[in-house]
UniProtKB/TrEMBL annotation:
Residues 518-529 have a biased composition (Basic and acidic residues). It comes from Heterocephalus glaber. This is CFAP74 second Ig-like domain-containing protein. It holds the Pfam family Ig_CFAP74_1st. Residues 211-260, 515-555 are annotated as: Disordered. PANTHER family: CILIA- AND FLAGELLA-ASSOCIATED PROTEIN 74 (PTHR22538:SF0). Residues 220-230 have a biased composition (Polar residues). Residues 459-555 form the CFAP74 second Ig-like domain.
Amino acid sequence: LLSSRNAMWHLEIEKGQLEDSRKSSCQRMEARDQRLWAHAAQQLHREEEASGKAERNWQLRVRKPLHTQRELGLQHQKLVEDAQRNHQVAVKFLKASLGRMREREREEELQSREHLQQRMEAVLALKNSITANRETLRKLQAWGRARMQQAEQQAQVEQQGVRAQGRDVFKHLSHRCRRRQELEAQRRAFKEEQKLRKQEIVSRILKEEAVEENRRKRQQPPTKATTLQTLRGRARSHTSAFCEGKAPPTATRHSQPSEAAVQPMSLLMLKASSESMQTVPGATSLEEEMLSEPEILGLWNEDHRRYQVPQEDVDRKPVGGTKMDKDILARTLQQLRSGVVHKQVASGREFKGRPFNSKPECIHFKDFDVGKVYKKKITLVSTTYTLNYCKLVGVEQSLQDFIRVDFDPPGPLSAGMSCEALVTFKPAINQDLEGNVSFLAQTGGFSVPLKCSTKKCSLSLDKELICFGTHVVGQTTSRTITLTNTGALGTRFRFLPAPKACELEESQSVLKLSSPHTCEDRSLYERAAPDVSETPLEAGTSSLPDTQSQKDSEK
């Protein structure tokens, strides 16, 4: 029993050992099967991926030509649409440009017609003015002769009255002669004053005309500007001849009247000249009329058109210019560096005039203080036909200690292009300075005026004459006057009473100038102010000097 039990126990032990080995072997087999299944699944997945990739590559190889062809078609269609769109935009802008050109041509034609009409009206107005002046001169001469006869008759009557009263005729005549000399001196002084005023008016008109001429030069072509300049020069000589009292030169049939006669300022000049004719005694009247015809026949025709540059001359050049342009540019630069100046010709026209315009036209440092630094920037605009160059020469010797100019040469400048320069002013003395900043261009030198002005005081009154008007004895009347200092420098002022003698002389002159006129005198005064303004001095018999002379004769 014990042995069997031991054998059983031994068998049980072996069975447990074998069970453990069987379990381990089963586990190993399961793990091996799992590995085999996983490897097979991975292999299958790789094969599927390879087959899918091959399929996709084949599809890409098939679709790529189709996609490329489709893109080329879309790109071509887009290019065609862009070309059509650009063509439509170009046609639109071309129509707008042509419309503007036609509008500009219509405006120029209207302006030329208006200009011609204004010239015709100016000539007719000048003719009517000359006729009116002749009639006025005849009336004034007849009136002067009648006045002389009346004065002689009055003198004879006075002499007879003096003889009838038994007084000394010689004293009466000497007193009358002295009074006439005084009146003549006053008349001469008044005439000189009127002449000075007329000269001031004419000079002011000429200055305004010069400003207008400069403005037109900037707006119009140079050839037309030179023509206007010659015509306006004739107008100035004509006006100066009138103001000096000389007979104006006879206008030939091919002479052209000044273009400034159309403007209102020129009409004022003609009126001033006609007035100066009336003031000068013995001036000959104009017997010949000025004919309004151009210097060149057909210049004022309506079908005349200005010269336009052909389209072949304005074709675009390659970027950077051709080889010939580069050679010309190199030679021009070399000549500019050496200071050589030569003429500039474009389209058969030679450029003459100022190569650059300065903005501002004058460099003016106003109201400066010693020790401070002032800076101003100027802009130089090219006005030539083709390329031009600009080089700084310097300032005058008297301004080198105070003025410094910073200017970088800009190179070639086309017409209308600009460059800038900086002018620095550091005053060391309190004194007015004037000079020029000189530049050198391809067509010649030019300069910009420079002016430095110190602080000054400028006093002015708002009234030249204090008139209290009509008042009674015992009444207190007051008037207000304003003293203004428009300058930058302060000053002190005080009122000084005028001497009584000066007050008496002023009152006498006021009485003489304010003597009554007849209706005929007033009408003549409206037509010819210079001549009739002298009449109160001659015919003012009721003024203060006459009453004093009557008292002296009674004594």
